[in-house]
Amino acid sequence: MKYKFCPKCGRELEMFNCWDEGEVPYCPVDNTLYFDTPRPCIVVGVVKGDEILLLKQSYIYKNSKVLISGYVDQDEYAEDTAYREVLEETGIETKNIKYLGSDFVEGKELLMITFMAEYKSGEIKKSDEVEGIGWVKIDDALAQMQEDKIGTKVVKKIIDIREK
Ligand SMILES: [Zn+2]
């Protein structure tokens, strides 16, 4: 987020010229610079053989399925967030996580850290947060997730990796 007021003392922030960073909101009382802060979020494609795990969550996209995603907690490795979110949302344990690159959601202040992971164990046991979960053939996945732009990029990367 872009700070206008100091989160510590409530004072309206001044702009401070911070060399390469340009003008940055600054609290002279607390002597603190408040840089813009996108929130880190993970997206993970879980692969089992030639299938990938897709969720249906209508509050995100009405007509598309999505990959598993979630916010990185304070003091948590993004990789651990990915393992945790998959387990929490689907009941599935994963292994061999692989970083696929970062992305962002325009205007949403989110930094998306994307991964693929392999199925390790467990049966699908969906959380209340999720409407539906299922294994979908990787080759059919893209047609079912048109609204999920970042998820689509992740699945394309997974397809590329598998073809090598
Ligand atoms: Zn302050």
Describe the protein's architecture and organization.
With 164 residues, this protein is an alpha+beta fold. It has three helices and ten strands, in the order E-E-E-E-E-E-E-H-E-E-E-H-H. It has helices spanning 78-90, 138-141, 149-163; strands at 14-17, 23-27, 32-33, 39-48, 51-56, 65-66, 68-71, 93-105, 110-121, 132-137. The strands form two sheets. Strands 4, 5, 6, 7, 8, 9 and 10 form a seven-stranded mixed β-sheet that branches. Strands 1-2-3 form a three-stranded antiparallel β-sheet, with no helix packed on it. The protein is elongated, with a radius of gyration of 19 Å. It starts with 13 loop residues before the first strand and ends with a helix. The model has no long low-confidence stretch (mean pLDDT 93). It binds zinc ion (ZN). This is NAD(+) diphosphatase. It comes from Clostridium sardiniense (Clostridium absonum). Its cofactor is Zn(2+); Mg(2+).
Task: Report a brief summary of the structure.
By secondary structure, this protein is of the alpha+beta class. It is 20% helix and 39% strand. A hairpin with an 8-residue loop joins strand 5 (51-56) and strand 6 (65-66).
Task: Tell me the layout of helices and strands.
Blueprint: E1 14-17, E2 23-27, E3 32-33, E4 39-48, E5 51-56, E6 65-66, E7 68-71, H1 78-90, E8 93-105, E9 110-121, E10 132-137, H2 138-141, H3 149-163
Parallel strand pairs: 4-9
Antiparallel strand pairs: 1-2, 2-3, 4-5, 4-7, 5-6, 5-10, 8-9
Zinc ion binds next to loops.
